[in-house]
Amino acid sequence: EVQLVESGGGLVKPGGSLRLSCAASGFTFSDYSFSWVRQAPGKGLEWVSSISGTSSYIYYADSVKGRFTISRDNAKNSLCLQMNSLRAEDTAVYYCARERGLDPPWPSTKWGQGTLVTVSS
Amino acid sequence: SYVLTQPPSVSVAPGQTARITCGGNNIGSRSVHWYQQKPGQGPVLVVYDDSDRPSGIPERVSGSNSGNTATLTINRVEVGDEADYYCQVWDTRSGSSNSGSYVFGSGTKVTVL
Fold first, then answer.
1. Which of A56, A59, B15, B92 lies 20 to 30 Å from B1, alpha-carbon distance?
2. Alpha-carbon gap: B87 to the closest alpha carbon of chain A (Å)
3. Does B88 contact chain A (CB < 8 Å)?
């Protein structure tokens, strides 16, 4: 069974840092690109970042560029999102999503359950 | 940046047809994907590449895309179809061969009366 399990969310002060992880299982991790997508409370979906299967292609939304870093470890079947200089507007549930192919763009065919990040003093 | 416009809400009686639109400049030239999201759950892909269905999605769910509007159609609507629906496209940024972004529509809440 394909599974994506996010972790690392929590409460952090403005200007702080947080590292999200997504543990994958049930498929060949390196065959797929991945995205992080977030959803602020009561709001719609917002794409954050994507990474290709070999990490050759990496993309960021303008809203997080320079502050967030996406990475993956194909040996550990793990996806990460390092979030620095966090702002109140980064408060959201962050979803890990597996795309349909190796290099973006592809639709996201499998999503995790999400992890909540709250940025507040 | 590219903008996708969806109506905030659509109401439909059980057994009827729900049509959810996603407007964008010449969206017909792009591949559109649709996601369903129920409260407290992660999104689920229901249509990709304008009109293809992933396995497990019923045939009464379909998509089309032409001109400036993509449409998700749900025939014979059931109570279980009540959810938020989002369209998505890829936007290749002009002036860069290795740059782009995913764009989501603002979402449409489908209410089954």
1. A56
2. 10
3. yes
* Tens-digit pLDDT string for chain A (121 aa): 999 999 999 999 999 999 999 999 999 999 999 999 999 999 999 999 999 999 999 999 999 999 999 999 999 999 999 999 999 999 999 999 999 988 888 999 999 999 999 999 9
Residues 6+ apart with CB under 8 A from B58: none
CA distance A93 to B39: 13
B102 in reach of chain A (CB within 8 A): yes
CB A67 within 8 Å of CB A6: no
Inter-chain residue contact B45 with A113, CB threshold 8 Å: no
**What single-letter DSSP state applies at residue B5?**
B
